[in-house]
Amino acid sequence: MLALPLLVLLATDAPAGPVAPRQVTPRQVTTAATGHVLANRDCWSADSRWLLYDLRTDETVFDGRRIERVEVDSGRVETLYEAPATAACGVPTGRGERVVFLRSPAEPTPDWAYAPWHRFGMTARRGERPTVLDARDLAPPLTPGALRGGTHLHTVSPDGRRVASTYEDHLLATGTGLPENRRVVAVTWPERRVAVSADHPRDQDGGFTVVATAVTDEPTPGSDEIARAYSDAWLPDSRRIAFFGEVRGAGGEAFSEVFVVDLPDEPTAAPGRPLEGTPTTRPNPPAGARQTRLTFIGAEPNPGVAASPRHWPVSSPAGEIAFLRRDADDRLRFCLVDRRGGPIRWLTNGRIEPTSAFTWSPDGARLAFVGDGSVCTVDVASGRVDRLTPPAEPGPTHHACVFSPDGTQIAYMQRVGAYDQLFVVDAATSGPEGEAR
């Protein structure tokens, strides 16, 4: 059994204009001699007072022992969760009164060490002890609502009812002669608990969890079939999730496009397609899940969405999805597409290329990102970029650039000595002649 402590929960480049600088003073929020890593979004408390983070030395190393939060104005730090001595935790996000984060297996063994198909989510509300987020069942008979592997990077839907994540499958990753293990998007109903028979030592009870996207080992060239689904982000209606799907071009080349999956209200199995799959087949999406391709960039000189920097197709409050792609001159630019599909709109001209993930302002008017060593925002109506912090070396990291829920601050990370520290900057921008607007 997991020993779970009580959680203290969170109560332009412009196509037609210049890059506008303004003099601001970024404020360092953390100072402890340890790593501090923000998730790419949903790391602020609802009242914009606190930041959630973990203590990994770097996002590529899963070695954090605690989930913490810091009060931005005072610098006061609270520990929300401490992992067992043989485990690690990280990537916390929150929505309302729910916090979710990632855990590695405790007491790892050679056949059950940290891996994408061995990690799992944890969740809690105010005053609760954290519980396992996603149920897991590894031995027949498999259990509907329990998957057979690991989840990662959990985000709560805007209405608080469901949690999205990526998923990889232990049975397929470690078996032979089976379909390939491929990353997909999963969805958990955390209040709908699933009890597992514990026929395997790594089985665990948890929330009702299903895969939401369909993949295939060999997508038909030129079709909408995908080999993997990744970088998921909720749409504002809490019924749909945007994600990147890896397709095959007419010549068999691999690249990714923007997709959306519509979710049913309740997860029930389609005839002949058990949610849990079988020991030799993948889990299946629930009946009513509908996967739709929004972009068709395969014929361009640089097909598909940009592979780097790592980013997510996040949506504005109005349902406009932002993503990055390279133009014919190989410049990295912001693009927008409606949640229902349609033409792609180029937003920036590529003079300042994004080097980080990005987030929307709560009013949907701007995107925050790191570019050219600065925290920047781009005005969605005009495409004008404002540089909020002066270029620095080392500058803000590529991990995160996150608007606060009240729209007044942007949080980011920057290396100070040997450690990544958390910073915030005023999100107000300057007008065409430099005056605040």
From TrEMBL:
Signal peptide coordinates: 1-16
Organism domain of life: Bacteria
Chain segments carrying region Disordered: 265-288
Keyword Disulfide bond: no
InterPro entries: 6-blade_b-propeller_TolB-like, DUF3748, WD40
UniProt keyword terms in alphabetical order: Signal
Protein name, as recorded: Translocation protein TolB
